[in-house]
Amino acid sequence: MLTTLPNLLTLARIVAIPAVIALLYMDSAAARWTAFALFGAAAFTDWLDGVLARARGEVSPLGRFLDPIADKLLVAAVIVMLVGQGDVAGPAVLAAIVILCREILVSGLREYLAEISVPMPVSRLAKWKTAVQLAALSLLILAPVLPWEGVVLAQALLWLAAALTLVTGWDYLVRGLKHMQES
Hints:
There is one protein chain. By secondary structure, the chain is mostly helical. The chain has a single domain, classed as CDP-alcohol phosphotransferase transmembrane (TM) domain (Four Helix Bundle (Hemerythrin (Met), subunit A), Up-down Bundle), CATH 1.20.120. It is built from 6 helices and no strands. Helix 2 runs antiparallel to helix 5 (124-141), helix 4 runs parallel beside helix 6 (148-182) and helix 5 (124-141) packs antiparallel against helix 6. The longest helix has 35 residues, at 148-182. It is globular and about 50 Å long. The two termini are 32 Å apart.
């Protein structure tokens, strides 16, 4: 099952992380544009792997396990780098922390619920949250080469992603606690 195209795309997303991080360390416009392109391609595979898995009948337990891990690793690594590089600074760091904390909370919740055989499907709003989050991070990767309007847009999207993160995190927590109380 590891060699199905959807799973290979998910693995490619994980493999892309060190390259994106290395490019963010470099101090050049070309490196930022390359990191942007690579991150964008990795983000696109987040959508594509699911579409292909469903269309080809290749949805697998391994894919359901790896896909959210790949997403969280990619997002967390880029957020940490952007904060470390100063591209996300000041109050915007709070938005980044909210996003990271929610990812940890939801991962732990899913792990617990899996132990008691309770599925926690991704909500439609959570999919929108991911799209906004990936768009914000894509633009923030380019922050050093964007005009100030682009940086303002990127930060606004980061705050929107943080707000959606709070809403979806709360939704998952409430649903998860309901199952915990029943078991």
